[in-house]
């Protein structure tokens, strides 16, 4: 097994809201190995973005974060603001969903990249500019030296996302967190952006965490997958195992609702995502689960190895083998 | 950019003409300049009155009269004031200089402290400091300047004198009676109270503008990007936050000249400060047409000028705006 | 929802109570006032008495009781504020709705005119427009004498509608593109119907806010005019907050502090209370806040 660069253990995130505390993340365990591309899947509200914003230390002060996050052996939960600043952008960086608003409209593209470089490396401004142009070239922006002098509004959405990637990889981080990087883009552009991310991963050996609600995206690029539901992991494993024979009813449902060529009908998961102010007792998925029994309503399952997958379902062993229509 | 400025300047000429025509109409109807002349100079001869009508373009036909006035105004043939037959230009020039001094002082002080207060409030929204600043600003904009002027005068000038034997700030003029020459310290002392009163309004207004603008910016995605870069909070605030938050504030500032001048007029009157405001109220009270029209031209021209400055600074601060 | 948010604004609730008490005092003026408007306190010599038991807030230059005069003055000022705010809001809402809905030339001209008025220093425009109104003889039946309360109300109605029209126009412009208006148009509803049934009711929040701010605007405006000697005249025993504040100017130098302090504080309290109410209304009716947690 490869070296683990990021180890998340028992991570909890709670927000205080007027209607009571809201536990958005309820004990997550997750490992990222060096150089791999880990997909994190879940519906909106499943806590996938919040977990990684907590890892980055980017949550607002009213969020309470507990648990352990080790980045290359360094504990990030409870680290000082100064320590977090030195980690962010250097060892750990992040790409966001909406490239249209992620770049500061009043600064030149080149400056926004070199700002990232110079905040963690002692570079002359000339060297930083030169490096910024190289980075633009790496992420596939034509005429990088001209484009570096332009402003974000002169770039298309896909081009802006490339710039955001260039900023994120500027200091060659150990882990790159990509939060729904393709959701706001056209389908044709999506594929290009995924390609850029893969290229970066291969070229620099960066571990990538790809957060998405789109299993299709995961299937295309991920090595391993981690499925989240209602602030907990429900299943994880390699992409092949998980897509071949998912164990957890939620994962089965996700895969069954995926459109595929030749498949006759989509089978949606019934019901609605849980209200996180007051999540269901026991396994949070039980109200929507066709296999749920009384035990599921009282006991909170945790990840257990089941074959070549890790699954958080008490009944995983008894369930019939999943039939995924292909 | 230069072409844009030139074109805007060229466009401001017809605007200026149209607005001064409206002002001319309003003053003709509102103050009846010929009657005012007769009232102030009851023994004026028929010929004198006719001369007054001719030079000021006060013909019965408003359009003809306006162009007559315009011609005399441009060629520099300005009528003397109806009261005391004073030259208009020197009086207007002095008033402009005095107001510019008071207005600049108050604006600089006001915007400086207003912006700082707004930033301090926005840094921790909902915190104790924010509530204090925001409430004070709200009280500040709710109190009209003449009320604060009366109360501050009562406290610092009249009662200070009763309690401590000498008033802290004088309440009228630029210099004490009989003073001649330039004395910076004395001038500052005389200007202090009116400056504070105008500045209070500006501080209150701009701290609110800045607060809401910065709060908008703080919640934007690019601020999160900046934070994810691991740069210092100070740098995030100054380089990414302030620069964007200032864009709307600067635009409003340049368009706000009218209301600042409005505050100046009221304050000047209360402190008998010989600026544009006192000039206006005196000549308006007398119905002194020869004094009023040039004053209006100056005001309209400066509003147009500051509008232009607003647009230019907007484009300068925000690369998304191109002036064509 | 909106009501709950309004009530959670503590300053606004206190302001409502203050304005309520003031209104009660003013409506019940015959009972709450101790002397008539122009009646002197009966204890000669009685001019410039400092606050005491037979004149709670002191007396003025000819011995009239300031406390009673404040009640009568606030009565007139509130009347001016409410009347001109109601007229200007009605006028402004209609003009703004039509301008926003129709767009085109009418809209352009409206915006230009209001721009012009708003760019000028307030007091200058106010004085010039006041004189123009007074200088047009054919307006006399509407406006009355230049120093009457009616004239002041007409003057501030003419001033107030522009701000309201801008607000409503903006609101209508954004509502116009919304689905329910498109839907109404698609089923063939008339313009008038859409304005009356969809656009104006959905602009109630901003209109209410504009109403409160126009009340303050008119009250402060009246005081400003009176302060500079252009306000309503104390004709048949009437007075107003403006007249009282105007008298304060003279009292400053001579040191009769009560003549300055009490009217000024009354004006501040009224302006602040109504502003707080308006601010809370704006927060309460702002649809953007509905989504917040």
Q: Identify the most extensive interface between protein chains.
A: B-C, 43 and 42 residues
Oligomer: heterotrimer
Order of helices and strands of chain B: HHHHHHHHHHHHH
Helix-strand makeup class of chain C: mainly alpha
Average pLDDT level of chain B: 88
Q: Care to count the β-strands of chain C?
A: 0
Kindly report how far apart the N and C termini of chain B lie: 7 Å
Give the number of helices of chain C. 13
Task: Please explain how this structure is put together.
The complex is a heterotrimer of chains A (326), B (324) and C (293). Chain A is an alpha/beta fold and 326 residues long. Helix content of chain A is 31%, strand content 24%. Chain A has helices spanning 48-56, 81-87, 99-102, 109-120, 125-138, 144-147, 157-168, 187-204, 215-221, 239-244, 249-256, and strands at 4-17, 20-33, 37-41, 63-71, 74-75, 92-95, 175-179, 207-212, 224-229, 232-238, 304-306, 309-311. Chain B has 324 residues and is mainly α. Chain B has helices at residues 2-31, 33-40, 46-56, 62-74, 88-123, 128-142, 145-164, 184-218, 221-228, 233-255, 257-270, 276-286, 289-317. Chain B is flat, with a radius of gyration of 24 Å. The relative contact order of chain B is 0.14. The model of chain B has no long low-confidence stretch (mean pLDDT 88). Helices cover 73% and strands 0% of the residues of chain C. Chain C has helices at 2-7, 10-27, 29-32, 66-102, 104-119, 122-135, 140-143, 149-176, 179-186, 191-202, 204-227, 241-254, 257-285. Chain C is built from 13 helices and no strands.
